[in-house]
User: Fold this.
Amino acid sequence: MATVVAVIASTHHPFYYRASTATGADRPPFADEWVSKIETFRETLTNAKPDVLVMVGSDHFHQLWLDNMPQFLVGKAPFFDANWHNEEREFGLPRMRLQGQEDLSAHILRHGLDADFDLAFSNELRIDHSITCPIITLRPDADLPIVPIYTNIFAPPLPQPKRFVQLGRTIRQLVESWSENLRVAIIGTGHLSLELGGPRQFGEHGPDPEFDRKAVDWIASGDIEGCLAEVTLDSLHQPGNATHGFMDFMLMMGVAGEGAKADHVDSLDLFHTMEAYFTWYPNGAPR
Amino acid sequence: MSKYLLDKFLFTVDRDPELVERYREDPAGTVEWWEQQMANKLLNCTVTERSTWLAFTEEERTALREHDHVTLFEMGAHPFLTLTLFIAMFERDHGPLEYQKTYGAMMTHLTLPYPDIAT
Assistant:
């Protein structure tokens, strides 16, 4: 059976690629510290020696649109092209192509449906920076097959936070019931407090550092109950108008499990938004 | 009011580099052309299969014609779509992050709860 060798939750900052590759006067003052933290974070995945990556993210109005909007969608294809014109334009992200793991996609779809998640699917999915950012930070060689899973954190009406947690739990069970003897890492990215297109955007810090501190504590300690007691679809408007992306972190808390303390926790206070990185080793830290 | 159609305008213009330039240089002409030719186009269908009922209100036309991102926000247009397109059109005229900060500063009169963006 497959083994979940690492569970990883991260912010996905589209500026990292440009900041980390910039030189001379173009290199921002925070780049070296950021790169150092990312390299340490990357080792937590490398050390787990994964064969396959399940990647949870959210399409930012690239392929999924309001005329036909799924809540949860699994990509099932032999390949996934990646990154879009406006991500190239605004963030300098490179075009990429990732290999798919169709057998695991099919397994998650079939058994996810049987577990009461009416998952949508796509056989031709071009993925965006919510999935390529963690590839760039955690697996820059992009050499492992993936199963992309998209959630709707973007186009209301959205699923409730508890559904993200439940889906995370289900994804963990589905991966562990896959018959292949392979090592799987489950990686998901979201946001802490974030404002896009509103008055609180691009400040000195994220729009709500107090929310960020609490969010990091919930995730690091696996406090799903405490998090669910405070976080609602309405409450997530308060820390910033794009903070519903936090529900992808809640999904990853569901993958890691109630009370599961993260083995690696790090954060970086940047302008506009706080970065945060978490790794759990369900079967103990690799030696 | 059609938040969906505002979003559809922002979405379809943003993803087409020629349309981004056209909307930057000739907003009134682009909005008029888009409403006539594109508003009822089903994005995932052949050109002959069109919708028949989508149109802007005069207030929406005006906000789009005037590149008025504050009013678009107040109307409940999706802030991510507006921001992404407006950065594509106007960041080039400003220093690093200057446009993004000015964009936010023009909205400081707005308080929570923000306008509903559900479509």
